[in-house]
User: Fold these one by one.
Assistant:
Number 1:
Amino acid sequence: MTPKDFSALRARLLAWYDAHARALPWRVGPADHAAGVRADPYRVWLSEVMLQQTTVPHATPYFLTFTRRWPSVSDLAAAPDAEVMAAWAGLGYYARARNLLACARAVAADHGGVFPNAEEGLRALPGVGAYTAAAVAAIAFDRAANVVDGNVERVMSRLFAVEEPMPHSKPALKALADGLVADDRPGDWAQALMDLGATVCRPKGPLCDRCPVSDFCAAFARGDQDTFPRKTKKADRPRRYGVAYLLMREGKLALVQRPPKGLLGGMLGLPTSDWRATGWTDAEAIAAAPVEAAWRDAGEIEHVFTHFALTLRVFRAEGAMRADEWAAGRGLEALPSVFLKAAVAGLGRLL
Ligand code: SF4
């Protein structure tokens, strides 16, 4: 593509965004933005952190709950850890919730509750990576930042028919995206690319007949757009094995607080064995139980974390133990999803 094509492509995509931008609760739409309305950096940052973990439909209710309970970054900074962790349950990957709080507290304590307005300052905040810094700088502060996530990588790989496989092609895809960033409407540009990737240039079955930039797309011209981005064969996720224990007393379930560091750190959960590379026999599972009781096999679940897959056997018994909480009904709903699954598998339903 020539520089002239670049500006024509930009104009085409921005015009499409003006007409088709998704209405999102954290977004200032293109018409309002043109009228001078600015996005709230707190809402942009919060949405970006949530969206790194999950999809827009799944993140939206969490975003609405967070912003209702904690309307500003200073409100979030002042919230007790346990309340924020509980509100995060279901979004997965709790390290992100811990970073969220650390970042909110740094903005409140070190920046008077005001987010830094450029990538460098944002990047210095705890837990804020290159992507989030670029997204907040572009969307909230209209900085000409190059905002590249998986969606944008896919769009670039197709527009330019990049043959190099992922993940080796990441620097090249980022450089191609950078060539399209300009000082004119950088926040809208970043969001236009995100919308194109999410709604038109989808991972499977891109809707090229509705694409505003199909005239510029090298993969579309060749007719093999579905085959991009090229990929190297991925090694399977490692698998770990563990046991979860459902100890019942008077219709309630024993819950324990997990250690503050590590996976699901600080969350309430079911008592479990270690999670290891080999499976558990019945005798091993019973020997590793938190207390002696008439433990019975109550099923098995599969759960996929970011870095490994877990096969969790579930054992159930009546008895007593030193638990951090005994819970039933709503008290169980805030459990991380891996434990919810185990409880439902072992009990047939939630108590
Ligand atoms: Fe993606 Fe198709 Fe548009 Fe190319 S033409 S950018 S493959 S939707």
Number 2:
Amino acid sequence: MKPFFITTAIDYTNAPPHIGHAYEKILADVLARYQRLRGREVFFLTGVDQHGQKVQQSAEREGIPPQEFADRISGTFLSLWKTLGISYDAWAATTAPLHRESVRAILSDLKERDWLYKATYSGHYSIRQEQFLTDKERGPDGEFGPEWGEVVLLDEENWYFRLSKCSEWLASFLESHPEFVSPGFRHTELSNAATKITGDLCISRPKSRLSWGIEFPFDSNFVTYVWFDALINYISFAGYGSRSEEGAAFRRRWPCDQHVIGKDILIPAHGVYWPCMLHAMGFADEEMPKLLVHGFWSLKGEKVSKSTGNVVDPAALAEIYGPTALRYYLMRDAVMGQDADFSEERLLLRHNTELGNGLGNLVNRTLSMTRRYREGSPNLVPLPADLSAHLEADAVTVKAFIAEMDAAQIHAGIETMVELVNRANALVDSAAPWKLAKDPEQADRLDAVLATLILSARTAATLLQPVAPDAANEILRQIGLPAISLDEETAIGTLPPGYVCGEPKPVFPRLEMQETGAPAA
Ligand code: MSP
């Protein structure tokens, strides 16, 4: 079977990571871990976008080479992904020679097949911001505002990609492949945007104004436009164009099953440029990737933005509250595709109630009672009807979990785990093992109740595993059983002969509000 290929956007290296970057990476990591739990081989690619004007300008301000600047910021991303347990298989850093050569080979091939041409563009150019301006940048009075500084009319030669040649193809492709983008509501928005393609895409920058990019192979006065370079990461780092083993790996991996991106980069980059680029390169309609578009996190209702200081530092949050609480909260409180507002109170609340009082309490009570009443080893007895029904309900919950996670509805997947835990905690209260333990005639019932609770706790830990792997694995270690298998018909199972549970230790210690030092980044 083809490996499950999942990627995220590659992050700009002009500033350190903020909560939005962390959200996207955790989201992809959860989906990757979920696929692995299903028994699927996974190829999870992510990385950093190191070229472009912003990096060049930031490096100039510090008086250091752009590579040094990009490497330093890339380091802050790498260290955060380690802290947060992001389980990527390949790292895309766009200054890597492999990527540069891939971009250059693609440019040469496109030129040979007449997809590229050189032309002169005349337009308004902001000297301060070093960019061409369009009518969108004009203020209500029709003028370019003071933020643009001096604006001059400039003629500039550049290389263009024949995007307009793809417009018909894109429109019909989108119509026949609504699954190209999810959630579904994005499809209309994208189809509308596709009908508005008129011109071609300028894919070069003259070195005289931007040198920090990949040089054109056939025209050394130009470097590649950063988006054209960045999008290619999805294939270059997956082995595209290699004749060696990596080339074979690419053919096995592609197409990408989930490009996880934020809503701001759907149109035009991923929804228009990227499929058209692939189409021009010769990829068939069936070989187009699938986009999974998430919403945006805000802070106190405002856009997260470094320039206004409205940022939360995910590294600080992970250090204070731990990666488990942060991962759980971000996955639990955002509905796929919708925006969400960050709140430290809610982070603590979700952790302390659903994980601490919910799952943590279930595991703690179950293991403590099993050790107290049965020295960790319940006798294996047939289950009475009510307890069999309890485990059957767990199996139904697991199916619901699978359906939600297959649809990338992670918050709803977590909800199924919460339901399962609530049901098990209710069983503890109603079955009251402490009463059963006092009555020798109820010995079999006590064994059956304890076995049922252990199996339910194991299932809950399995469902938590993609979202909070460290906590889930610690629970499974304490329970003394491996995760249940989600690869075929779900079996909740029975306790193996000779089973002895481990010692319970708190996995979700209660969190109190701390001075995070956030906002900061
Ligand atoms: N470098 C480009 C992507 C190139 S992909 C070939 C870029 N970088 S970015 O650093 O600005 O954004 C990286 C990802 O983070 C994007 O998917 C973007 O949507 C996402 N987010 C940026 N801010 C965000 C929030 N406030 N909330 C959620 N996701 C956010 O775009």
